[in-house]
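About this split. The held-out portion is used to measure sequence recovery: a designer receives only the structure tokens and must propose an amino acid at every position. Recovery is the fraction of positions where the proposal matches the reference. Here is one held-out target exactly as it appears in the evaluation file.
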């Protein structure tokens, strides 16, 4: 008997965009439902309800952050691209942007017990 994940998972479930949150949200959005399915003894209704409760705020922050960073990384006008490039060449500004991103994208994840060995 295998575990079947929801039809939409990973960064697709969180709506990550050009903002660079795809890999992180994919890992988080795979870890949590697997742990919740194990915790709920395979009861997918309970597991997915808890998954949504745990990750909805994280997903919403990622989506909102993606809206902002998308406009920054893919500006509409050439002046925006030149401004972006100038900012990214300055280590202090880059460090500041990365720290701000950590505050937006942070998530406290549950610790799940190790899975039983598969036969």
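Reference sequence for scoring:
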């Amino acid at each position: 008997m295998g575990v079947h994940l929801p039809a939409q998972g990973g960064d697709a479930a969180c709506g990550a965009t050009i903002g660079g949150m795809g890999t992180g949200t994919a890992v988080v959005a795979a870890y949590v439902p697997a742990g919740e399915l194990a915790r709920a003894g395979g009861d997918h209704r309970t597991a997915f309800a808890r998954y949504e409760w745990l990750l909805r705020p994280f997903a919403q922050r990622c989506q909102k952050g993606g809206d902002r960073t998308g406009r920054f990384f893919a500006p509409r006008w050439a002046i925006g691209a030149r401004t972006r490039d100038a900012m990214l060449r300055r280590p202090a500004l880059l460090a500041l942007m990365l720290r701000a991103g950590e505050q937006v994208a942070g998530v406290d994840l549950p610790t799940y017990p190790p899975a039983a060995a598969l036969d």
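Annotator remark: Residues 44-73 form the longest helix (30 residues).
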